[in-house]
Amino acid sequence: MSHPSSHLQQGAPPKPAGASDWHDWSAAWTKHVPLLTGRTDLTVLVAPGAAGTAPECFYPDLNRIEVDATYIAERPDVTDPAKARHKRLVPTGYGLLVHGAAHAAHSRWSTPPGTPPILAAVADMLEESRAEGRQRGRRRGDRRWLRHVVKTLLDPDDAAVDDLWHAGQLAALLLARVDARIVTSKDVRPVRAAVTGVLGRARLRQLRDIWREAHICEDTDADTMITLARRWCQVLGIDPDQQCDVPEPDAGLFSGRLAAALVDYLAVAAGVTPAEYAAALLAHRHSPPSEWDRRDPTEQEHRAARDLANRLRQARNQHPEPGRRPSAIPPGRLRTRQAIAAEAQTAAGQLPTAAPWQQRAQLPPEKPRLHLAVLVDLSGSMDRYTETMSSAAWIFAHAARRADATTTTIGFGDRTTVLVPPRARPNQVLTMRTGLATATFPEAVKVADQLLDLRHGRTLRMLAVVSDGCLDDIPAGQQLVTTLHRAGCAVLWLHPADPLADSELTGPDQMWRHTFTQTTSLTVADPVAAVAAIADAAVAALTQA
């Protein structure tokens, strides 16, 4: 999701393709926007891909509001934009128009030249709730549509890690909208608890004073907005004169309570459960490319899945079932015949020998449940491994289904791709393709943790990585691996035996067969050996659990 600064842009963007199909929407909303803004010099452009990287954007130099049509509907004939009832059919799209109108009507200031980027970013964040609050004060009914659009303007990446900067960012983008009377305090209760846990009550109270002052700023008062941004940075312990750029999230840290609370909020706003929202988000971001080939599984792959399932079941079922034994005293299950016999023996003056209770022996530990994530390097040097590992992904998924285990296979390269989601039973084998880079290894580890809860689960957890170790961000990868190791998740790293030519290394930070600490590293002769090593490790882990 784009930063709020992308909702206000200078210059003239190129006209997006497909604008002609949405011409009626652009014309209708251009005619309607003076009612929202009180300005008659504005135009509205609706088209797929409009507004750059944001869902909507206001261009002051052009006096134009752009709205990405993909947030309205798949086709322009969904409704007639010239009729008033259309806004109820496309509340998110119309909410984006209202949000853009709020900027057009009230964001009448621009960042002074020479302002450090971090101050400009904070001022832009404060401007989001300030402009919406002013719009609501002028047109109370617009709050309904602005509430619809908040979930579109926010993203879990706004709270990537639990640090002061991202907690403050989430506070500015969501909690400040409570004081702007766009969302309610009840709506953001989990988010407020998470932000308070990171910032502390005193610091959050100081930030709230700042955004409340921003809400009463004049529409043209740039100096006050920048002054408030400087105070914001000081509360967070940042010197904007020393740290000019916006802090980037540490790639070696997993997301935490901030992201979880934001996902809960966005799920409720979308009318789904947090699990459903997270699954939809993962599918949107990490679905396999459409050009990857699919084929039917072979008989050999079916046989391999059955064999692996049998091995996993045998390893998992090695614990004996609890036995039963008779007992003269409770607790246990009362056996009526033995109870009558005991009473008869007592009445006859005999020492009772009947045992009326049946007790179960002490229950053994719960059978281990395996959570296995397989990460496959999709850089060009791993080309000969992709076909076999694609086949292995299908085999692991079907074997896990039969053996009460959970697996997922994820490819990492130029992007992170979830080849087989957890608990899926794919009908076909999807063949991965290699690319040029391995920039997304840290992201792939985080996706695996999100899918299988590798850090917190009470299950038997394992991460297997098939890679030559020539990665773009080794320090971040090592930090993530260390976190998993300390959380009790075993990490298996499989290196190909064939060395990579020095000419294929693309950067000074890359190295051939880098060995990560706190992992079990093996060298495999070929792709089949890599698959066998993962299967053997899974069986051994279940056996020893």
UniProtKB/TrEMBL annotation:
<feature type="region of interest" description="Disordered">
    <location>
        <begin position="313"/>
        <end position="332"/>
    </location>
</feature>
<dbReference type="InterPro" id="IPR036465">
    <property type="entry name" value="vWFA_dom_sf"/>
</dbReference>
<dbReference type="InterPro" id="IPR008912">
    <property type="entry name" value="Uncharacterised_CoxE"/>
</dbReference>
<feature type="region of interest" description="Disordered">
    <location>
        <begin position="1"/>
        <end position="22"/>
    </location>
</feature>
<protein>
    <submittedName>
        <fullName>VWA domain-containing protein</fullName>
    </submittedName>
</protein>
<dbReference type="Pfam" id="PF05762">
    <property type="entry name" value="VWA_CoxE"/>
</dbReference>
